[in-house]
Amino acid sequence: MAKHAALSRKLKPRSNPGDWVTSRDYPTEMWMMGKRAIVQFRLNVDVAGKPTACHIQQSTRPKAFDDAVCKAIMRNAKFEPALDAGGSPVASYWLNSVTFHM
Question: Which of 3, 19, 48, 56, by CA, is between 20 and 30 Å from 26?
Answer without folding.
Answer: 48
